[in-house]
Each structure stands twice: as structure tokens, then as C-alpha cells.
Design a protein that fits this description.
The structure holds two protein chains of two kinds. Chain A contains six helices and eleven strands. Chain A is an alpha/beta fold. In chain A, helix 2 links the parallel strand 4 and strand 5. Classes of the chains: A alpha/beta, B alpha+beta.
């Protein structure tokens, strides 16, 4: 059973992002970049399935600028067997990424694709769902537990939903997007970082995959959230209740 | 709260643009150390330092290592229990392969350069000084064994030490033999099977006992019955905590016990053991190399250890700076200086707080730059195909090891103290965490040779013995840079140029005085030894900051917009005006100060 894991290079979660002065987007110059945390969970799950003898190969895929290679090397250091970079300097939107991944899936025929549920830069939460729709495969989003059945034709996936947890069974091949509680990603070991350098990393392009990645959405403006205005001190509980009732009108 | 964040941007700058990682990666055997691989290693080390080691720093300090009379693993004798979480963190550290970073590939190491090891070690030390000592000593002990031990000893111990499954120690100090190792009294009695029985007490043994590894490999200095007096009669022995069977499995418990641990000012999580060898019939030991050459072997590991301890100075500066900066951003106190009736502002706006933060930052960057440059020179000195290049770099490393050790650690203490000052009264309270850095940093200027010992080594063995040749070559190299500085434009470079030129001449003058005086009045020269070590540190640090500023300016001129480069020039300028400017005073203190040091009769004290 082959597993495909899409990974995205995003602004590191520790970085406080700044909006460019012209409002055209986020300033990425000289900002530390890392693998999207949800994708780290995805790689970890795939590697665990391989270690358990369920998966036979883990392929990491990324799309974007050439330096997405660094993110793929991280995936290789964490245990992926090989990597594919779809190189382009076009701004990629979820639909374009889903189409690219569909093209890769048609070539690679994985039994399971594990994207992160969303990327922490644009928070779109769309790629996995779009990919499943394009492929006509079942999808299980926001997974917090995965059990593949013995003959690897189906999987039970526990999903994190508003009211609690929901467990569904999906036929394979399928798309499963990860939530943070699926597992705790490991630290890459030094020998594996060294070995990652020698693992195969194949580079292709959207054109070679026959996919038009032109943006369908236009960003009009990016702005900082409004600053929180200062609060007021109340003298006692009575005043608080009074204000909640009459000013805020919440009780 | 202030979380440790590895300063990867500056580390990468120093590695790649200042210390010459690309040249190191061309040395035979270091071909793997390419920029992209090193970036990946640094990223992952940063994650480990930030995510695993740093969170244990404060709890480890509060809980401390604990000794008890039945604290050994199976309760059959005394032993040490580590603070909660250390055992698991060490297991993960070893499993992740970090113990093997610089080790010989023959024994399972990754064989990466010292330059890369320096950057990674700095992160361990910033994140958790007490933890970092265990792998530091294990690495030093393994290096000494691999260079001096027999094939049998290497086969028995090195693989397990490289993988971190076993740890190592250095057993030098005895109650009467601290800085003066000639006074060592531990005995080694030869046995019919070629092994020895070791008897004696050792003190101040870092990680002499703990529960993080299944075996501990002690390297012990002792005298054989026929040994001559003094330092020429000291031999080195391997004394494992558990004997090792022929098949590599663990055998009987050796007669080497930790009989107590010290209560210390800092590094509470690092057990400092009193070791008793041979109280129950004799500890089995195996001779390393030849008899009576133990001190020479110990110095192999001592030099690596001194460099490693020097990195503690860098690490202390960085960690204390980060916490003080975070506090200064959050703490609101007083209106802005020169503004009447305005709002109260974060203290980072106040010029005196800003001066303290700049001083901390400049010292962190300068000590880092100097240490890594010396690390790179060590790699060249070890691996370069050309003999003359190797020799030249080795001479530079030998000259600078006492400076990296002595200057960086003294500065680390000073910066950690400034960090407390930035916090005001809150810094004196343990809860803020600033005080721990000062308590932990304090030992770095003492162990592996005090600053005074480093300074004597510097002016005696490293300068006077060769007539100051290596120092003079270094001064010439500094003067060459001074010419480049003269050509750079802008007020920052004018300031750097002025201070650097004066600093180099002060160093040259004081260096000449030391070399000239050493032969005729060694006591006068020694009275100026520590000020000279500090002077060389300041000027060499200023030299690297000036080089960094020139490199940064070239980047800016080429259109690079990374604000890091602007910051670097300003920090170099601060270093020049506030720190390099002390060079003249230090030179005077060296050349004129000896009479004031020695004039009072002993009974006037």
C-alpha cells in the first residue's frame, strides 16, 4: 500500500507575520519557513503505517517555489521514502494544488492520500476535499484516529466534529486529512537527516503534469486585524450584570 | 515567560559568511557538510533544544540531581537520581543521534566538522546548561580513548559511548589536587592479567553518577607504584561503572561509587560527584596508552572540553539576552525619557535599558563569531591536505582556545548579570528565571581550568614560548582588515575603524610587553595575564564583528534587503564604541599595573 503525503512550506508557526505596507499580502522576506504542522502530523501517520508493516512506500509531494525542496527533505528525514516537487513560481490556490495532486495520484496510484486539514498560512481547508472530489474518492476529514483494515481495502477514521467524535468507514483509495490529535510527530534523527540527502527527489512542473494553475481568485487587500480596544473596570458584580444586560445586551 | 528560540539567523550567518562553512565542507571527510544539510541539522537541533531541553531547564534547577545511600539502579549502593524528565530527554537525545554528531564514523559517528558541532552545542547549552554537560564529557572521553586507547579498549567502549548508550567522565581533581594535578595521589596497582586496581578519591566529577545510561566510563588519572613524582608520573585508566564481558554485555559492578554529590551555586541538575575508587578491594581499571603519559592524554580531551565550555559563555549571553529582551518589551514603567506627561512605555524605550540590551546582544554575537571561527580553524588544522596550512591554523587554535574559554565565559557571567539588571527587582526573584543564568554561568569560568589558568597558559605556553609569533601573525591579519575598514564609508564604519585600529595597536603593545617581560620578570607578566586574555578577547571579538560588518555592507551594496545586515553593522558599531574602547585601558593595566598587584606584603592582607 502506497501513501502520498502532500506537504506545504509555510511561515513558521512561531513567527509573528507582518502585512506588507501596500496591503498586497504577507511580508515573506527573511522570514523563517517550516513544514505546515498539520502536514507533519500527516507524515508521521504515514511513517507509522509503514513501520507497522501496513504501508510499503511513503511519497511526499510539494508544489511551489524551488525552496520547497527543504520541506521535502524534512519529510524525507522524518521517514518518507522519496519526494516529488512540482516547481512553479505561480501563486498556488487550493484548486490548483488539488488538480496537481490529482495528476500525481493518477501517475502514482496511492491507496491513501494524507493532506493536513489546512495550511497555517491561508487556513483554506479546501485542498483535501477538492482532491477527493476531483478523483471521485471517499474523503475523511479532520482525522484523529486511523485504523486500516486487514486486507487494506477500507479504513475506519475517527473525525473531530463540532459535537465530539464521529467514526466513519471509507473504502480505499481515499483522501484523509489530519487534525492535530491524530499523533505527536517525532523529532528527526541525525542519521535520518543525513540519509535524507541521498533519498530520491524528483522535480516536475505543472505544465509537465498538464495542469493549468492560473489563480482563480484575486486578493484585493490584506489587512492586520483591528486592534483590541481597552476594557473598563467595573465597581462590583451588580454593575457588571447591568452592563452585560443593557450595554452589551448579551444577557 | 521567555521561551528559548535558537538564534538560527545569526548562527547561519556566522557559519556560512564569517567562519567559512563552504571551505570546511571541502576538507577531506567533511564533504557531507554542505549548506543544505547543515541547515537541516541546525533546524532539527533547534527544534530539539527548544522543544525538549529548554522546558526542563527551570524544573531541573529547582529539583536538582539527588543522591541517596541506596540510590543505585538496583538499590545495592549509593547513587544519583536525575530530576524528573532528564532520563527520558537523554534517551531521546541519544536515540536521535545527537551524541554522535562529531564522532568518528568507525564507531557509528556522523563525523561532522567541529564548526557544525559548535553551533549545535551552543543550542544545547543555551537551552539547558546542566543537561549539556553529560554529552560534552562523553564526547571528550571518547575522543581521548579513540586517540590514545588500545584496539581492545576502543572496541569495548567506543561504539556505546558514541551512541550515547554509555556516558563518560573525566576524573582528575582530588581534594589536594585541583588546578595543580602534580599533587594527584590516587594509586594504580598492576595485576597479573594486565589490568590494574585503582584506589583513591576523586571530587568534582561531573555526571560521575546518574540514572540516564546503563554504564558510565570513567577516565581516571592515577599513579602506578613505579611512577616518578609530579606530572610526569600520572597515568590514565578506564574504569567502567560496570565491567564489560567479552561479548559486550555488562558484567559485575565495579568498585567505583559515587559517595556524595555537591550542593552548588548553579547547574543543579548536573550531578557533581565525589567518587570513591577501591574502598571495597579495588576498582578494575585498564591503562590507556602508555604509563606516565596520562596528563598528555587528558589534555587532548581538555582542549575539546575547554572549547565546549567556551561555548557556554556564548550560550549564556544568548539566553540571558533573549529573556531580558522579552521582559523589556513587556514591562511598562515610566514615561519616555524627554517626553513630559506622555503615556508610560515599555522599558525597552529607555536609553539605559537599551544600552544594556545592546551590550548583551553585541557580546553574544562577538563571542559566537570568535568561537565558531576558531572551530573552523580547528577543522582546517585537522583535515587540510597542506602541512603549512594545517600548522598555521593549529597555532591559531592553540593561541585562541584559552581566549574562547576564558573571555567568553567571563563575558557570559557579566551578560547574565546584566540580564538580571534589566529585570530590576524582578530579576533577583527566582521565578522570573533570569537569576538561574547567572548561577549556571558562574561555573564556566572555573571548571576545565579557571580564567587565571587559561591566562597563564596563554601568555606562557602560547606566547612567550614562541616569542609571540602566532600573536604577531594574528595582529598582522587584523591590520590588513583595518585597511579595508578605512575604505568603507558611513559613520558606523568610521567609528568601527577608529576603535578597531586603536584596539589592535593596544593589543600589539601589550603583547610585546608580555613577551618581553615574561623572560625577565615572570611575576610581573603573570600579574597582567588575565587582563591580557580579556584584551585579546575584546580585540579578537571586535575583529570578527568588524569583518561581519564589512560582509553585511557588501550584501547591502549588492541589493540584499534583509534587515539582519543593517542590524549587524549597528551591533558592530556598538561593540566598537562600548567594548573595544576598553582596549586602551586594559593595555595600560597590563603594562603599568604589575607593581600595584604585587607591592603589598603578604601580611598586609
Amino acid at each position: 500500500m502506497k501513501i502520498l503525503v502532500p506537504v506545504k512550506r509555510v511561515v513558521d508557526y512561531n513567527v509573528k507575520v507582518r502585512v506588507k505596507s501596500d496591503g498586497s499580502g504577507i511580508d515573506l522576506a527573511n522570514v523563517k519557513m517550516s513544514m505546515n504542522p498539520f502536514d507533519e502530523v500527516a507524515i508521521e501517520e504515514a511513517v507509522r503505517l509503514k513501520e507497522a508493516g501496513i504501508a510499503t512506500e511513503v511519497v511526499a509531494v510539494s508544489a511551489g517555489l524551488a525552496n520547497s525542496q527543504e520541506t521535502l527533505r524534512t519529510a524525507l528525514a522524518l521517514g518518507a521514502d522519496r519526494a516529488i516537487l512540482i516547481e512553479t513560481d505561480v501563486e498556488l490556490q487550493p484548486l490548483a494544488v488539488a488538480k496537481l495532486l490529482k495528476a500525481v495520484c493518477e501517475k502514482e496510484s496511492p491507496q491513501l492520500v494524507i493532506p493536513g486539514k489546512q495550511a497555517i498560512d491561508d487556513d483554506s481547508n479546501q485542498t483535501g476535499q477538492m482532491l477527493a472530489a476531483l478523483l471521485g474518492w471517499p474523503q475523511a476529514t479532520f482525522a484523529s484516529k486511523l485504523v486500516v483494515n486487514a486486507d487494506k481495502t477500507a479504513a475506519a477514521v475517527t473525525r473531530e466534529i463540532d459535537g465530539g467524535l464521529e467514526t466513519i468507514e471509507i473504502a480505499l483509495p481515499a483522501v484523509m486529512t489530519t487534525d492535530l490529535r491524530l499523533n505527536e510527530p517525532r523529532y528527526a534523527t541525525l542519521p535520518n537527516i543525513m540519509k535524507a540527502k541521498k533519498k530520491p527527489l524528483e522535480t516536475t512542473t505543472p505544465a509537465a503534469l498538464g495542469v493549468d494553475v492560473a489563480p482563480r481568485l484575486k486578493t484585493l487587500k490584506v489587512a492586520e486585524p483591528a486592534r483590541r480596544s481597552g476594557g473598563v473596570k467595573v465597581a462590583d458584580v451588580a454593575e457588571l450584570v447591568e452592563k452585560l444586560k443593557n450595554e452589551a445586551k448579551v444577557i | 515567560m521567555s521561551e528559548y528560540v535558537a538564534p538560527l539567523r545569526d548562527i547561519q550567518f556566522v557559519l556560512k559568511e564569517l567562519a567559512g562553512l563552504d571551505q570546511v565542507a571541502q576538507l577531506p571527510g567533511y564533504e557531507d557538510a554542505t549548506v543544505d544539510l547543515v541547515d537541516a541539522v541546525l533546524d532539527e537541533a533547534a527544534k530539539f533544544a527548544e522543544g525538549v531541553l529548554s522546558p526542563l531547564n527551570i524544573p531541573g534547577d529547582r529539583e536538582g540531581a539527588k543522591w541517596s545511600a541506596n540510590g543505585s539502579a538496583n538499590g545495592d549502593g549509593p547513587g544519583v537520581t536525575m530530576p524528573a524528565g532528564f532520563k527520558e530527554a537523554y534517551a531521546l537525545f541519544a536515540e536521535s543521534g545527537w551524541t554522535a554528531l562529531q564522532s568518528d564514523p568507525e564507531w557509528g559517528g556522523q563525523g561532522l566538522p567541529k564548526l557544525v558541532g559548535a553551533a549545535v552545542t551552543e543550542m544545547w547549552k543555551s537551552a539547558n546548561h546542566a543537561f549539556s554537560l553529560c554529552p560534552l564529557l562523553t564526547g571528550g572521553a571518547a575522543e581521548a580513548l579513540s586517540l590514545c586507547g588500545s584496539d581492545t579498549l576502543k572496541k569495548t567502549f567506543l561504539e556505546k559511548m558514541t551512541s550515547g548508550v554509555w556516558t563518560g567522565t573525566m576524573n582528575l581533581t582530588e581534594p589536594q589536587a585541583g588546578s595543580d594535578l602534580s599533587a594527584i595521589r590516587s594509586r594504580a596497582e598492576p595485576q597479573a592479567d594486565g589490568s590494574f586496581r585503582i584506589f583513591g578519591q576523586k571530587i568534582f566529577i561531573t555526571y560521575g553518577d546518574h540514572d540516564m545510561a546503563e554504564n558510565i566510563v570513567h577516565l581516571v588519572l592515577a599513579r602506578t607504584p613505579t611512577a616518578p613524582e609530579g606530572v610526569k608520573g600520572i597515568s590514565m585508566f578506564v574504569v567502567p561503572k560496570f565491567l564489560v564481558n567479552a561479548d559486550g554485555s555488562l558484567g559485575a559492578r565495579n568498585d567505583a561509587w559515587c559517595v556524595s554529590i555537591e550542593h552548588k551555586l548553579g547547574i543543579h541538575a548536573s550531578p557533581t560527584a565525589v567518587m570513591a575508587f577501591g574502598d571495597h578491594g579495588g576498582a578494575v581499571g585498564y591503562l590507556v596508552g602508555e604509563e606516565n603519559r596520562g596528563l598528555e592524554y587528558m589534555f587532548i580531551m581538555m582542549n575539546a572540553a575547554r572549547f565546549g565550555v567556551g561555548l557556554e559563555g556564548v550560550a549564556a549571553c544568548e539566553r540571558a539576552y533573549q529573556r531580558a529582551r522579552d521582559y523589556a518589551r513587556d514591562r511598562i514603567q515610566c514615561v519616555e525619557t524627554g517626553v513630559r506627561g506622555g503615556p508610560r512605555v515599555p522599558i525597552i524605550r529607555h536609553p539605559d535599558v537599551r544600552r544594556m540590551l545592546m551590550s548583551m546582544r553585541a557580546h553574544a554575537e562577538a563571542t559566537r563569531a570568535l568561537a565558531y571561527v576558531v572551530g573552523a580553524a580547528h577543522d582546517v588544522a585537522t583535515r587540510h591536505p597542506d602541512t603549512a596550512t594545517r600548522r598555521r591554523n593549529q597555532a591559531f587554535v592553540d593561541l585562541m582556545i584559552p581566549v574562547v574559554k576564558g573571555w567568553s565565559t567571563e563575558v557570559g557571567i557579566q551578560v547574565a548579570s546584566t540580564g538580571i539588571q534589566v529585570h530590576g527587582g524582578m530579576g533577583f526573584i527566582e521565578e522570573t528565571g533570569a537569576a538561574q543564568y547567572l548561577r549556571d554561568a558562574r561555573i564556566s569560568a572555573i571548571y576545565e581550568g579557571t580564567t587565571g589558568i587559561q591566562a597563564n597558559d596563554l601568555i606562557g605556553r602560547k606566547m612567550a614560548r614562541e616569542g609571540g609569533a602566532t600573536l604577531n601573525a594574528l595582529i598582522e591579519e587584523m591590520r590588513a582588515l583595518d585597511a579595508d575598514l578605512g575604505q568603507a564609508s558611513g559613520e558606523h564604519f568610521a567609528a568601527i575603524h577608529r576603535r578597531f585600529a586603536a584596539g589592535v595597536e593596544a593589543l600589539a603593545e601589550a603583547g610585546r610587553w608580555i613577551v618581553d617581560t615574561y623572560g625577565v620578570d615572570v611575576r610581573a607578566a603573570s600579574a597582567g595575564a588575565t587582563p591580557f586574555l580579556m584584551l585579546l578577547g575584546i580585540v579578537a571579538g571586535g575583529w570578527q564583528m568588524a569583518r561581519a560588518a564589512l560582509i553585511a555592507q557588501a550584501k547591502i551594496d549588492a541589493g540584499d534587503t534583509d534587515p539582519f545586515y543593517q542590524d549587524k553593522i549597528v551591533t558592530a558599531r556598538f561593540f566598537a564604541d562600548h567594548i573595544l574602547s576598553q582596549a586602551d585601558g586594559l593595555a595600560d593595566c597590563i603594562t603599568f599595573g604589575a607593581p600595584g598587584v604585587m607591592a603589598l606584603d603578604e601580611d598586609r592582607f
